[in-house]
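re: ur question from earlier - yeah i can do the single chain one, its not a big deal. heres the input i used so u can compare w yours
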Amino acid sequence: MNTLLISYGAIVPPVLGFFVLTFIFLIAVLRAEKNQTNILFAGICFLGAIMNADVALVNLISDKILALQIDRWTYHLFVFSLPLYIRFVHSFLGIGHRKWIEGIAYLFSLSLLFFISSDLFIAGFHHYSFGTIAKAGPVFHVFSAGVGFTVFYCLVVLLKGLKSADDNHQKNRIKYLIGGMGITALVLALNILPVSGIDMYPMGNFSFLPAIFLAFGVLKYDLFDMGAMIRQGTSYFILTGVLTLVYIFFIYLFNALFLASGGGHSLLPPFLMALLIVLFFNPLRDRVQKTIDNLFYRGKYDYQKLLEEISRDMASLLKFDQIRDLLLERTSSVLQLSRVDLLMLNAAGNGYFYQHAGNLCEEISEDGFDRNHPIVHFLEICREPLDKAVVHRQLHSLPERQTEVITLFDRLHAVLIIPLLSRNRLLGVMALGQRKSGELFVEEDRQLLMTIANQSVTAMEHAWAYEKISMMNLELERKVEERTADLRRVLEEKERTQVQLIRSESLAAIGQLVAGAAHELNNPLSSAYSLTQTTVETIGSWENVKIELRNEVLDDLDFSLREMRRARDIVRSLLDLSRQTQNYMESVNLSAVIDNALRVLHNQYKKDPIVIERNYEEDLPNVQGNFANLGQVFINMIKNAIEALPDRRGTISLTTRYDRLADKVIVQCRDTGAGISSDQLKEIFNPFFTTKPVGKGTGLGLYISHEIIKKHEGSIRVESEKGKGTIFNIEIPRNRE
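and the output i got, formated as tokens:
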């Protein structure tokens, strides 16, 4: 019974190793991409599983001749683990210049085939207290030396690769490879001790422990790009299998102890077994389940809480900038990232550009990428987080696109890219850098990031819709204000037009009245002038009248004639200025127009010490225009100059000249009055603007003058300074178009 107990105890570790390595082998075969690295990895796991099965069978088979044959056939395969392992490490690290080492290893393994079936390789079995194990022949020691060299060489190469790796993903792959396959190979190599005759339990039987470590890395971090999903059921299956084997071991141990003590018919064994299950195995099962949750789903409940917080915060934000900052800040803080960048589709819809928030993103000089980049189509199709492993796996048949996408990863300094999708359209991407802890992104992290990304897109679309509505409201308010201002201007223009019409009608009526009065005055003036002139001639022929008396009478009559002539000129000027004609093609002499204006205004300044200076150019050419309208301009201009003189004392200079180069006649009116301030100067030609006291002016004189000059295709400018007088410059073209 004790021998049976010991034999079964010896096979439990290799059986566990067989199951674990077989499981990893199946993952590599069924789920992995069929590339060289994964095929070699699957081959190594297969050989390890076969070797563990061989150790168990050797202890279970009672026919030692059959057991020896099985052991030797197993080594026919296992000797090729040396070149297989070397080639796998080279392929994994991308080493292509050491093919000669692989060749030597293959030749070494081939040479061993000639000795495996003989006693030179395996001479039989050692029977120890822990079980049965092969007895090494001389060639087996040569094989063991090869194993030692292979393990040492591969560990050195892996450690160098770990030191030179600058990517957390690559570092973790190498770490798990060293911890899993490296230690597995090392403990298998230690089997040389018991096969050489040293009575110690073969350490290779515990290869299932580093194999479990490797399986954990494959499941959790998708090492070797196998695409293995982290499934809770799969994890439970592995550890439940381990517990089952442990449970069977304890049953055998328990039965062996009680059978050896002769207690086979007692009720005590079943009672103790039930108590053992309740007190030991149920808590152990719960502990295993909790351990799995901690290892594989340690952030699950924290992630749920985080999603609730992000959903609540994003629902309260209505601006894209705030949503962007929240997204980048939360993602960086929760996952402890070295960097995180957000690239969004621009307004034109032809490219993706960086969106920075605070100090989370360093300033990057590179541009983003355009919409034609292959990563855009890839993300819109796969709709999942993207890393380099997925790119290598999915785009291996399109090397050019694969290279372009990998180059973008390097340029963005990203190890994971999260798409922001809206109705199958890529709105942007989050480019995530390394985690500060050095850990890799697991499936839980990817699910969290995709959920956050989807919520962010929804919040961004709501923000854009809100901003669009706000802009529409602002645009509507602006248009309402513009329409209101237009309506106000129309109403003001209407009022000005009405005032102008009234003024025009008044001016027309006054013009007709002046014309009628002037006509009526002209007849008696002409008669009186003619009669007086006849009287002067008659008196001048008298000889018998006293000379002094005659001369006195003649002087009085001459004065009457001069005054009547002046009255006649004034009447003629009034007639000229009152003509309401729309003809702007009359030949007009501007010097004559100014003289007529001065005659009309003579009574306003004749009693005041005002000096009128007339500087007219001789042979001043006529202009095409309207005599009456131009007369109105100069009346307004001279009248304003008179009223601007302080105490109605000063000088008014009127100058006319011809600019031959511009073919224009220029009129300048300069006064020594009080001047106009710069603020008032800007509005001097506006209708109804006046600097005079209330009741002293309508504010239409200069406005009407400006419009009249504009109709003559001329210009009127004013220069003034407070306290230094004013200068009006009028330019009228000699010939109008």
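The radius of gyration is 57 Å. not sure if urs matches, ping me
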